[in-house]
Amino acid sequence: MLQLDRELKNNAYPGRGIVMGRSEDGRYAVAAYFIMGRSSNSRNRIFVTQGDGIRTEAFDSSRLEDPSLIIYAPVRVLGNNTIVTNGDQTDTIYDGIAAGKTFEQSLRARKFEPDGPNFTPRISGLMHIEGGSYEYIMSILKSNDGDPDCCNRYTFSYDHPKAGEGRFLHTYMGDGNPLPSFAGEPEKVAIPGGGIDSFAQMVWNSLNEENKVSLFVRYIDIASGVSETRILNKNQ
Length: 236
Prior knowledge:
By secondary structure, the chain is an alpha+beta fold. It has helices at residues 4-9, 40-43, 89-98, 103-107, 196-206, and strands spanning 17-22, 28-36, 45-50, 53-58, 75-78, 81-85, 122-130, 133-144, 147-159, 165-170, 187-190, 212-221, 227-233.
């Protein structure tokens, strides 16, 4: 099992990342989502609350250039499902599940982002909590080694997650030109004890200072469904 802080500190540009897992005491379902940026347009963002979820917003609207791939709702809640993604496929999953489709079926309508030559993967996760039980699913849609004509689709399902264990899925393996897409299954990482504030600060402080933009963390009590949320923005 990897240490999340080390993985983040050793990667100057993981891009956007999703962590899902279970707290060390077994009580909470844990989710985190962060965004990073290299361009001024990407860095000109903050997370703000929207209902039970969040959305991205321009910090300085006068400097907003192209909103198409940077303004979206990363987190939405539908009943017992918490959806976390790195793009507007959050809405695709939400609408699909509302219409009776599965998480995987909903994502069949989508593929990687149209931002060649990077063709940034679309990463998504869904946490389902019901009757005191908890499971989560993660997905990545990516180009076939940079070939935009082929979309590779991978879904990973985790039943009854172990306490203190999570999975980390991010868009890039590191910095580069073009940016190298994530490869392999979501990385197994430790979810340390100490509560939501300790976890949020650990993730935030481990992200590259120049490139980090915003962080969302949510802890959901598996027994009661009551949640706590923390949002950290570099732009204040």
